[in-house]
Design a protein that fits this description.
five-stranded parallel β-sheet, 43% helix, Beta Polymerase, domain 2, 2 domains, four-stranded mixed β-sheet, globular, Rossmann fold, coenzyme a biosynthesis
Length: 326
């Protein structure tokens, strides 16, 4: 299955994007909804919140008074971290259960407000970020949700910055315009990137570079860092190093968008052990006489290596798995 992370600052329009993806056929795992479930009346989660923040966070019927909790939990970093330490493990456990029950060909969208803050991006095949300017978000929160402006600004200040979101975003969804414009962007990403990415992943097939998705002004360094983070997550202790080499050079409009990344391992036996992890994570093996050569040499180009490639049509990448030292 394809695992997509969806995030955005409070008031940015993430719920709109999630609704469109749901309509298109994605399976939505909504972290906020799960977070409500794990602190429902009678749950251990709610009991722990009361212990941490006091009984005045409860309504008369015993359910959670969310504005009262937010006023306490978002007043400073220590309180916010205390809230996260209680809720996040419970949300993680329930998320794992829902993920395991999804079909093999599913496009699973993890709707997570704090995806970036909690460094969850590398666990996903792709991250979508919905963006709106701060003042637009303030207006939406105060006008549409009735949130006091002071609380809205405190919530925004406690979340990731736009710069952090841009660095984490494989797809940047601009919601500074009309709602239908965001919906159109989501539909295009679904058809041109998510659906073929899922098919490539399931069929263990490298992607073909897509002119439709080509973004010549995109930051290859940031893209390389995202792919490296995913590969480090997939490889775990099997990798000695994961290094971004740079964009490929050559003729054609897409040449500099093909990322070259190198994973160094202790032996080719480890490379073979690593192969299914990379394939399951969206980097299928590419049989190649040069990359499969067993001839050792002092030069890196002659060392035994395996070649994998990204299944993502929006960001092609070559991943070379080499034995340390030749």
């Amino acid at each position: 299955m394809l695992r997509v992370g969806l995030t955005g600052g409070i008031g940015a329009g993430k719920s709109t994007a999630s609704a469109v993806l749901d309509e298109l056929g994605a399976i939505i795992i909504d972290a906020d909804q799960i977070a409500r479930e794990v602190v429902a009346p009678g749950t251990p989660g709610l009991e722990r919140l009361v212990e941490a923040f006091g009984r005045d966070i409860l309504l008369d019927d015993g359910s959670l008074n969310r504005p009262a909790l937010a006023a306490k939990a978002f007043k400073d970093d220590e309180s916010r971290l205390r809230l996260n330490s209680i809720v996040h493990p419970l949300v993680g456990q329930r998320t794992a259960e829902l993920t395991e029950s999804a079909a093999d060909d599913a496009i699973l969208v993890h709707d997570i407000p704090l995806l970036i803050e909690n460094a969850i991006g590398p666990t996903c095949n792709l991250v979508l970020v919905v963006h709106a300017e701060v003042e637009q978000r303030i207006e939406r929160l105060t006008g549409m949700r009735g949130m006091p402006e002071e609380d809205a600004r405190a919530r925004i200040a406690a979340q990731a910055t736009d710069e952090q979101r841009r660095a984490a975003a494989d797809v940047w969804l601009d919601n500074t315009g009309e709602p239908h414009e965001l919906e159109e962007q989501v539909r295009k990403v679904w058809e041109a990137r998510l659906v073929p990415f899922e098919r490539n992943l399931r069929e263990r097939r490298p992607a073909s570079a897509s002119l439709e998705l080509h973004q010549p002004d995109s930051d290859s360094e940031a893209a390389g860092a995202r792919v490296v983070a995913r590969l480090r997550f997939l490889a775990g202790e099997l990798a000695q190093r994961v290094d971004y080499i740079g964009p490929s050079s050559g003729p054609g409009p897409l040449a500099t968008d093909v990322l070259d990344i190198q994973i160094t391992v202790a032996s080719m036996e480890v490379a073979d052990e690593l192969a299914p992890k990379l394939e399951n994570g969206g980097f299928p093996r590419v049989p190649n006489l040069t990359s499969d050569s067993s001839l050792a040499g002092t030069d890196a180009s002659e060392r035994p290596k395996r070649l994998h490639a990204s299944a993502d049509p929006g960001r092609p990448a070559n991943v070379y798995v080499l034995r340390e030292g030749g």
